[in-house]
């Protein structure tokens, strides 16, 4: 049984910051930056051996898919009138932003994205 020990470089850390930034400002690109970022998250997570980095990739992926799921689920509200759909999408957008910022700050402190208690 061999153990792979991989030292994280500044490039690895910078990439994670870039991915968090892409997710955080995705609203300004009609979510296209989030799609690109989540693809990179999937690719990088598959090769990741560091538990911290793997957890943050998973966190970003889950945040993306939960957000997309809620947006699809709430889309019929737009058929009622403008206000219910706009309110629902705003709440989901704020939740997405909160998750991105929370994860990013925790990564900056080299902590797991969520407390495991």
What does the largest sheet look like?
A: none
Number of distinct beta strands: 0
Oligomer: single chain
- Total of helices: 5
Structural class per helix/strand content?
Answer: mainly alpha
Mean pLDDT score: 91
Query: What order do the SSEs take from the amino end to the carboxyl end, as H and E?
Result: HHHHH
Radius of gyration: 16 Å
Overall description:
This protein has 117 residues and is mainly α. It has a domain at 31-108. The protein is built from 5 helices and no strands. It has helices spanning 10-24, 32-47, 51-74, 77-80, 82-108. The protein is elongated and about 55 Å long.
Task: List key phrases describing it.
single chain, mainly alpha, 117 residues
Give a quick summary of the entry.
With 117 residues, this protein is mostly helical. It has helices at 10-24, 32-47, 51-74, 77-80, 82-108.
List the helices and strands and how they pair.
Layout: H1 10-24, H2 32-47, H3 51-74, H4 77-80, H5 82-108
Helix pairs in contact: 1-2, 1-5, 2-3, 3-5
């Amino acid at each position: 049984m061999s153990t792979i020990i991989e030292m994280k470089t500044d490039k690895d850390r910078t990439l994670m910051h870039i991915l968090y930034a892409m997710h955080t400002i995705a609203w300004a690109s009609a979510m296209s930056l989030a799609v690109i970022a989540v693809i990179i998250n999937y690719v990088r997570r598959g090769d990741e051996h560091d538990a911290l980095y793997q957890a943050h990739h998973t966190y970003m992926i889950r945040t993306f898919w939960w957000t997309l799921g809620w947006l699809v689920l709430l889309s019929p509200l737009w058929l009622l009138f403008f206000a219910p759909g706009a309110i629902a999408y705003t709440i989901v957008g704020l939740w997405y932003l909160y998750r991105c910022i929370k994860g990013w700050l925790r990564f900056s402190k080299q902590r797991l994205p969520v407390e495991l208690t």
